[in-house]
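About this split. The held-out portion is used to measure sequence recovery: a designer receives only the C-alpha cells and must propose an amino acid at every position. Recovery is the fraction of positions where the proposal matches the reference. Here is one held-out target exactly as it appears in the evaluation file.
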C-alpha cells in the first residue's frame, strides 16, 4: 500500500459514513440513540475529536515537535470526555467540526512526503501508527445500519391480524 491508497481508504470510509447518515433529520441525528449511550451526534463528535487529535499529531510531527503519548487516559475515558465536551454544541457545529477536521487532516496528510509516514514507523500500511484512521469511520457503520433498521421497522405499518386491516 502507498500513501495514495492510504488516503483513499480514509476518504472511502467517510463517503460510506456520509451515505449512511444521508437523509436523516437534524432531530434524528441529535436525539436518537445509535448505541446504548450515544446519539448519532455523539458518534460524529467522537469521530471529529479523533480526527482533530490526529491532525494535531501530524502538525506537531511536521514541525519536528515531540509527540509523546497520543492520549493520556484510557480510550474509553478519552472518548467520554471528548463527547461530553461537545454535547452542549448545536448540531450544526458538531457537523462542521466533523467535516472540517476530516478535510484538514486529509490536507495535512496530503502534504506529507510519500516516502515517510507521520508518527511512523515506516510505511503507509497496517504498521503505521495512524492506520486506525483508514478504518475508524467504517468501524461505526454497523451501528448506524442497526439504527436505520430500527427506524424503518418503527415506521412500517403493522397489520392487524384479527381483521386483516393495516393499522395507521
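Reference sequence for scoring:
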Amino acid at each position: 500500500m502507498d500513501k495514495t491508497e492510504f488516503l483513499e481508504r480514509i476518504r472511502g470510509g467517510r463517503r460510506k459514513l456520509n451515505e449512511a447518515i444521508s437523509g436523516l433529520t437534524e432531530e434524528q441525528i441529535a436525539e436518537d440513540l445509535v448505541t446504548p449511550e450515544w446519539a448519532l451526534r455523539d458518534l460524529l463528535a467522537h469521530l471529529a475529536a479523533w480526527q482533530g487529535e490526529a491532525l494535531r499529531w501530524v502538525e506537531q510531527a511536521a514541525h519536528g515537535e515531540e509527540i509523546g503519548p497520543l492520549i493520556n487516559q484510557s480510550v474509553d475515558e478519552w472518548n467520554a470526555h471528548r463527547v461530553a465536551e461537545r454535547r452542549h454544541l448545536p448540531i450544526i457545529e458538531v457537523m462542521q467540526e466533523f467535516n472540517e477536521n476530516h478535510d484538514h487532516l486529509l490536507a495535512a496528510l496530503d502534504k506529507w512526503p510519500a516516502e515517510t509516514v507521520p508518527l511512523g514507523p515506516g510505511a503507509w500500511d497496517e504498521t503505521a501508527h495512524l492506520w486506525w484512521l483508514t478504518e475508524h469511520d467504517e468501524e461505526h457503520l454497523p451501528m448506524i445500519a442497526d439504527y436505520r433498521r430500527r427506524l424503518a421497522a418503527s415506521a412500517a405499518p403493522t397489520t392487524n391480524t384479527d381483521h386483516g386491516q393495516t393499522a395507521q
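Annotator remark: The first strand starts at residue 159 and ends at 160.
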